Structure formats: structure tokens, C-alpha cells
Amino acid sequence: MNLTNVRCSYGGWLKTTPHHRRTMKELLLGCGSRTRKQLSIGKDTEFENVTRVDINTDHNPDVVWDLTQHPLPFKDNEFDEIHIYDVLEHLAQQGDYKFFFEEFTEYARILKNGGHFFASVPAETSPWLWGEPSHKRVINEHTLTFLNQQLYGQVGTTAMSDFRYIYKADFVKVYTNIIEDTFLFILEVRK
């Protein structure tokens, strides 16, 4: 298998799965004043054809939207990539599993099959995890297990809870890493 590089704004190149270059449609959720990708597959750190979304009009987003409101205002299978950096920890309370699965079902809906979801959240060791007054939840590598339908095969043999009755989407991990105080991950949607 040919490998390409994952680019991380923290520096360095990280190996991952193949990616084919084409005109992309990208979505940046909770954009703030961000103008560059924090994670990418390949060497591109610039957005190509991006729609920027934020609740704060001061950041001049293309779409003003509260990310806790679903459905998101986009068509099915509209985007090749979703980027969401330092936002997920603000969106729901720890333990609100219904919102968690609704949220990732919505991301899967608007991603094309094989599309990628790029994210960063505070690592469990980060002083910002609970030190930031608006952080509401922890997302770690174990949390991502519940987004992969194949991994539900362990239900009944481990302590893993079965959420397949409310969650039908399917994401597989492409990349995870902790750099400094940040947990970075890339998921690929399977439809």
C-alpha cells in the first residue's frame, strides 16, 4: 500500500493511508479566526474550497450556525472533509450519549462516502481540559471506539455498551495522536 503523509500544524509528518488529489469541498466547523488546517492528509495546509461555520459573527463565517442544532444546514454527501478544531469539547455535556451519537450521525450524513473528519480536542492530561470554563466533555481515543460499527462485535464479552439501537453511522480511525496537550484524530466515514 502506498502511504502518504498526515501534516500536523504542531510540526512533523505522520504516515497514514492513501489519499487521491482532487478538487475538494471542505467544511470548517467552529471556525473562529482559523484560516489553515491543523491536520491534513498530504502536504496541503491551506483550505481549497471551504465553507466556514461559526456561531460568532465577529469571525465573518460563511454560515452562522449553532453547532448544537441539528440537522446542520447542508445537503447529504456534500463534503469531502470536515475540520473541527478545539470545538467538540464545547458542544455537549459529558454523558449526553444521545447528543454524541446524533452529532456524529449528522457529520456522517454530510460527508461523502470515504470522506474524512479531522479534529482536535484537549488531551486528558491538558490543564485546559477542565480549566477552560466552557469545556463540557472529554473525547479520547476510547470514545472513538463507539463510532465504529465493527467494534461493536465485542459487546457481551467486554464492558462496552451497545448503542447500535440509536447509532447507525460508521467511522473508522485513520489517525490518532497526542501532541503536547492536544488529542488529534482523523476518522473516515463508511457508507
In the CATH hierarchy, the third-tier topology is known as Rossmann fold
Strand content: 25-35%
If classified by CATH, what would the architecture be? 3-Layer(aba) Sandwich
Q: CATH first level: which class?
A: Alpha Beta
Order of helices and strands: EEEEEEEHEHHEE
- Helix count from the secondary structure assignment: 3
Structural class comes to: mainly beta
Largest sheet: 7 strands, mixed
Short description:
With 191 residues, this protein is mainly beta. It is built from three helices and ten strands; from the N terminus they run E-E-E-E-E-E-E-H-E-H-H-E-E.
Describe the structure.
This protein starts with a strand and ends with a strand. The protein has one domain: Vaccinia Virus protein VP39 (Rossmann fold, 3-Layer(aba) Sandwich), CATH 3.40.50.150. The strands form two sheets. A seven-stranded mixed sheet has the order 6-5-3-7-8-10-9. A three-stranded antiparallel sheet has the order 2-1-4, with no helix packed on it. Helix content is 12%, strand content 31%. The radius of gyration is 16 Å and the shape is globular. About 5% of the residues have low confidence. With 191 residues, it is mainly beta. β7, α1 and β8 form a beta-alpha-beta unit.
How are the secondary structure elements laid out?
Elements: E1 4-8, E2 13-16, E3 26-29, E4 39-41, E5 50-54, E6 63-64, E7 79-85, H1 97-110, E8 111-122, H2 128-131, H3 141-145, E9 171-179, E10 182-189
Parallel strand pairs: 3-5, 3-7, 5-6, 7-8
Antiparallel strand pairs: 1-2, 1-4, 8-10, 9-10
